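Regression test attached.
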Amino acid sequence: MSGRPAFPRLFGGIGPFRLRIVLLSLALTLATQAVLGYIGFTYLRSLSAQVETKREARVMDTFYRNAMSRLNNAHRLMQVLQTPAFSDYFLDNMNLRQPAVAAEGLAELAARFRTLALADQGVEAVYMIGSDSNQSALALHAGEERPAVLEKLRLDALESSSLSSLYVRSHDRLEWIDAAELTERSRTDGPGRDPVVSRELGDMNRTLAGKLIISNGNANGVLIVLVLAERFLDAALPDDYDADYSFALMNDSRKPLWSAGASVSAQLVRGITEAADFDFDGSRYIVRSKPLTPYPETLLFARKRTGTHGADATITLLFALLSATTFVITFAVSVAYSKRIFRPFRKIAAALNKQAGRDETRLETISPHDYVHGVNRFSTRTNLILLFALAVILPAISDGALYNRMLKSSVDRQIAVSNEETGRFLQAAVRTDFDGWRILTNRLAVNEQLQRYLQQRQRDAVMGTSAQPALSAADIAMFPGLNEVAYFVLLDDIGHSVYASIFFNNSDLFSLPRSLLRDQEEAYVIPEFKDVFGKTTFALVKRMYREAEQGEKVNPNYIVIVPKDPAFADLADPETAFRIADPSGKRMYDSNAAAWGDADGRKPAAWSAQVPPLALALDVRFTNAELLRQNNDYYSRFVIMVLTVFLGTLLLATLLTSLIVKPLNELQETMLLAGAGDFGRRSRQRGEPGNEIGQIIHSYNRMAGQLERAVSDNMRMLEEQAANKEREARLVHSKTRAELHMLQAQINPHFLYNTLETINMRSRASGQPEIGVVVTALAELLRYSVNMKGDTVTLEQELHHVRNYVAIQQIRLGHSFRFEVDAPEPLLRRRVLKFILQPIVENSLKYAFAGFDEGGLLRIEARAEADGRAMTIEVRDNGVGMTRQRLANVTLSLAEEAEADADARNGLGLRNVCMRLRLFHEDGAAMTIDSKPMAGTTVRLVVPLLPDEPA
Amino acid sequence: MKKTSSTAVLLLLTASLAAACGSDSGGKTAASSSPSAKASTAPSGSPAASAAPQSDKTVTIRISLVESEISKDDIAAFEAANPTIKIVREDVTATKLAAQIATGEAPDIIRVNGVQELPSFVIKGVALDLSPYFQKSALLKADDMLPVADVYRFDGKNVGKGPIYGFPKDWSPDFSIWYNKKLFAAAGVPEPDAKTPMTWNQLFDLAKKMTIKSGDNVTQYGLVKPNLLEADLSSIMGYTLSKGVKLSTDDYGQIDFTKPAAKEALKLWGDAVKGNYGPNSVNNFDKGVADVDLFLNGKAAMIQRGYWFSSRIRTNDNTKMHLDDYVMIPAPVAEGGQRVSPTGSATGAIINKASKHPEEAWKVFEWYFGGKPAEDRAKTGNGVPALKHLMASMPQATNFDKQTYAALQEELKYGDKYLEINPFLLNAGTILSKHLNPYYFDKSSLDEAAANITKDSNIIIAEAKNAAASGK
């Protein structure tokens, strides 16, 4: 079991097959979760992006058209103010005329201004300033009944205060008036400035400071300055708009003019006017710009990019939790189920194991009833499929459903936000359009030509003359803003058409029933209005009075405006349907009637609001068809994924089954062979013996092994007996031969020894004791040499051998040297290698005392080393010594095995000793030589202490 | 006049502001704000400089002629012949032009009233010195030019001298008188002499006779002229020219409207207003109706308009069928003055000094003033060509044509003198109306009016001179 990898140990008793199944289940779940996550998040992102893109487009387009409409209105107002009806008062030298004439002109002008309803147009004030003291100048503040007469502030005064260039700059374009610049320019006034002029200029500057203005650049001899209300462009946005977008307006020199929307700050506006995406306060802002052609201004939109959608984090967390739960479920189910699948395998293995362990030849049988019940009734393949279905597919499907819910609710939330915003922008757009129409009716009501025409008609009626064409279609066609509507009709108080802007010669076509006319100040709508082209639409009605001649009572006239067909065309959006109803609930407009049916069974999202000031009801429906299509896409992808997982599971189950079944088949085959007596065949073991199938095989193999071993043991015993007999015979034979050899070898030394003993006796007898000594020593040398028993001798024996040798040599050399031995008693009993000292002594005698007649000393010292493990034996002479070169050669020769030169050959004995020591003690012994010329030579042996001679 | 003058004030102020701020058009504006035109002869417009890099691209030349002055067919023909140049016509008002000049966005070719506007455009550094271009031109040759072309020469002091900055598309002796024979016959008033010029007094007497009133309303005016029948700068200057009197000092640093000749003129116009011979500020009659229409519709017996008006008579539905009812007679002369018949406008164009494509602009300029459009213009009789060789193309077919042409030839003999235009007095119209209207309304005297006009004019002249000097 030591071969088992570390990881599976974590799973304790789980066998590798089960482990594999569990791991596979987990891997499948992981893959499934990954795919589910991928599909889900892709879907979420794509939908998110789409909703966002659509929302962005709607917000921008709607705001753009609203802003354009507001801007158009301001410019048209400027055009209207430059018509004689408004401008002549400032060109007609009113200050030179009779006061009554001037007063009448002023009253008429004031009435016209009231009709214009400046406040409705987002205009805070209008300045109309004549050129010089002959002319008038007025300031009209929205909401004030009468215009304020400027006593002395005239164009010439403005010119001399160098303020006029401001008004040139704002000619036909928006200009934001910087209070500081105003002050700066006003300060350059000449010192002699009239105090009245200064006061009036100061008032004007205060009104203008920090405002957007448009001027006519004095184009018609009257300087007209429109001071736009703070809300001028805000009105193009839904009320209190503070959602995700920021808006700004800049002029063609990239100067910011206005800004609104979410968390607008000066820094943000600066960033936006760069018209490139930018980072601010840790967020990325995406900027889009769109020039307000033909005006020189550009609209800018910035959207704070939330990175991923806000709900993403929550969804990711939920996803992670759900994934983790799924993993646990997969794990638990796969572990539990696989345990049940493999239980019979384990039981059989255990039974076999027990059988093997009992070491008996009697085999137990296994009852199938113990194993084939419960899930094990199914085939392994079915079980595996079931396992994967329970552990992987089921969680995958339920997860998919859950994710879908989660993602859908997230997208729904986003869509809801988008819808809400779209609705609010639509509301602003509808309001803007109605504002535009109301403004148009107001302007028509003060139109000079219409007024003159009505007066002419009145005169004709009184005098009985026929109506002259005082009003031509061409005059009116040029009326600013008229191109925004299909046509307008002027009715008298009983609904007869007096004038129509189209089909001029057929004005009777346009008459309306009197019941549709309401004698009220406020404009109102006629729903379900059948226009002259036969289309059902709506109309806007405004009561007007022609300017009365003295003392005359005038009947009201009515201006009816019919919007272009289709109205709100640019607001139409295939996914957003809206309808407008009048305050009584009557249908006025329906952008897409088909969108109101619940054709696909899905209830579209709805939004509704009231559009002030006409109290119109706006209902919006969002079909979000594209999103629905995407959702279906998501479902089909989800289904495809589940199918893929299912197929993958089938494939895996098949694969695993074959992995299990194949070894079982082999086992069966093996068992059959064993039944036939062939125990040698083993089932190949796949994987570790811990493998459930492996265990059975292993157990079987063990059992088979045991059976086989029993057989082979018997065989071996027989073989061994035969071999023993043969060996014994061989041993006897070799022993005999060895003894013969030994006997043979002992003959000659004994004969020589006996002979030498005879010589000794004879020489002693003949009074030659020296010969006797020599012969005795020689005999002992000989005996020592031929004694073949063992390699070692006691130091004492070795020294004795040396003494014998020295004794012979002293006689030979005439006692020219002394010989001393110094060895302590305990060491003498120590065993040393035989023949290690005599060759050294022989060497010394051969070289050391060349030329010595006397005085030579040869000394052997033995001493134990301090550590008690070795002894040192020194053979020292006081002879001629060696040159350094020679010593080196000799030392070298000791280390080498080959005989190098003469010096080395001379040291043959030493080398012999050295080699034998090395052989015997391996590296435990050492031999060193110290020598100097004429200072003797010392050969030092260090040998390990061998055990004492046994007592 | 009122309108153009007051906008001209803004124009001047804007331009001087731009010069003071050193606007984007670079050193050009500043350098050329010098009142001395000699400074402008510097080769700032030397060819090739800025045009070269654009050579491989189509260059757009913006031109501020009015729609009736350049036809789409002409533009198409030019563009076909010059594929690298595109012409864009643009309507500008004086205010818009002032703003464009201030921001360096003015058209490449700017339509100007030669007589009244050229000096100021030169002084403001807007006009490119075209002398080097004219010298090379095969279409616009000096020896082919009528003296009126000199209106576009200005040396900083004198019109008619110095470098040439532009060219008139056509011109007329603008003070000539036209009358409607039928109305004279109807009123039983003898027609004026077609050969001898009337004095202004005689003219106004005749106008008085031809004015028909119905209660407080006038049903037929005796005389109409551009804008209202009131004094404007050119009519005053026409009078003083005839008198041989200059109101400005030689350096244009001062002007004096209290000189007897000026006061005579003012008095004449004051009487004309009070006599209601034509629409004026006091009577407010026919507001917004053009003098030309009043005359062509038979609502005015006489009109003071140049030769070019003959083409209107030829083409108007009311008049073209009986051309012989209309007669052009000489411009009036001052009491005791010499006969003069100056041009009051000589409308033409200059090339914007800030143009990025002066070469291409010149090509268009040369073509328009010397090429086919010029030939076509001459044929219509809508003004007198400024090139001699085109004179022969002028209409001389009908009796009307012949009478008019003959009268013109007489007038041209007296057309060598130019109206006195003080280039620093740009808002004269505003000043005149400011101080003459009270006089017309009997709220002030002639002396007061003349003194106030003089005073205000001199303030403006001083300011403008200062502005021009500081812009150097």
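Expected vs. actual: identical. Residues 446-470 of chain B form the longest helix (25 residues).
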